[in-house]
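Hi R.,

As promised, here are both runs. First protein below:
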Amino acid sequence: MQALQDINLLIPERRVTAFIGPSGCGKSTLLRSINRMNDLIDGVHHQGDIKLRNRSLFDPDLEVIALRKRIGMVFQKSNPFPKSIYENVVYALRVAGVNDRRILDEVVERSLRGAALWEEVKDRLEASALGLSGGQMQRLCIARAIANQPEVLLMDEPCSALDPIATAKVEELIYALKREYTIVIVTHNMQQAGRVSDHTAFFYLGKLIEFDKTEKLFTNPSHAQTEEYITGRFG
């Protein structure tokens, strides 16, 4: 079964791009293609190409682990490791063989500050990450994703399991993070897309129907199908 067809778009650097569309339209499939998470699914294959700085992400000489350091990902359900807050943030660095405490301490503070979590957890870094609230866990996962200082940050429905207060904090964070990262977010929440994104892509049945600046797409879409989805006539 073909999940995506004839997708062609240029994602702007250091901006937030939202993917919207009804369930099953291919949003998450495309997102997971950007850091090759789909490689982990048996039977999945692709045609065409995705490029980052003019280099194919499918270049056989490109190491996938190295690619995922450049393209971080935050999932729908927060998935902190059953370790301390500190060890969650430095996990990727530990795997890479970094054990210098000074370097690790700097990364932890920088990443937690970047995820707007430092002030809330700085006095309990050795406590279990599983003791955090849902919103804090998701921000910890964002801190873990930016610890490697990636170029691109992918977010797959990052607020779908959060309450309105936690959602607002994550949205504020997304807005702040675009100063340093190119962000792509999949969301079912069109109000959220309108609040946090600079550009929006609308997908339907595996096809890219429209891609434009968010304000233009939401107020004056070029396609009737886009307008019907945004106004709630389907989806």
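And here is the second one, sequence first, then its structure tokens:
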Amino acid sequence: MDASTAQDRSLEPKDLTGGDYGFIVFILLVLVAVTMLGVVGHREALKTEGSKRNGEQWAAWFTKASETRFAPDYAIAACAGGAKPAVAAAPATGDDAKPADAPATEATAAAVPAAGTWGGCVAHLMSATELKDMVNPFTGTAPNFIPACNPADHSLVGSIVIEKITPNPPGSAVPSITSQLVDADSIAEKLALKISVCDKGSYAVKVAELEF
């Protein structure tokens, strides 16, 4: 057998072995896994973008309301500026005390958000405006308002964080502090607000800082 004949035989196709088939199957599985991860990642990214749009919708409402809510004829009384929250009356004593059924009545009254507060405003917005139809893309339900996003709690995905920014006195090392905007907070004056949403990992994504 000469050298040319041996070389020709070395170039002839060989049958695939079991190891070859196993490698091909492994590569196909890797491709399928990578594709599925890409699809899932894309879906989660879309949900995060949907959550950001929810935050942007709130930011747009705050910005628009800020221009007119201090006008005397502002249409949404619950969110109007200038109206100081009512101060609760002192409990009655002696002959002026309420009858036995008073505790239930007082509890019901306490459950109604006071006028001139964020609680009264958000209650109206979530029941009588287009904001009531807002949906958390991750859960399919209305988004929750929470104090802060927390990566350790994945139930917070898609939630909304609305914080008030309070300036510190001039010369302070920290120019301002942020804290949760709670139901009892007065909205009689202008407020500086920060809006964030929780992404797929429950990390905070800043949406906007604005004046309300």
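A quick note on the second one: Confidence is low (pLDDT under 50) at residues 104-110. Let me know what you think.

Best,
J.
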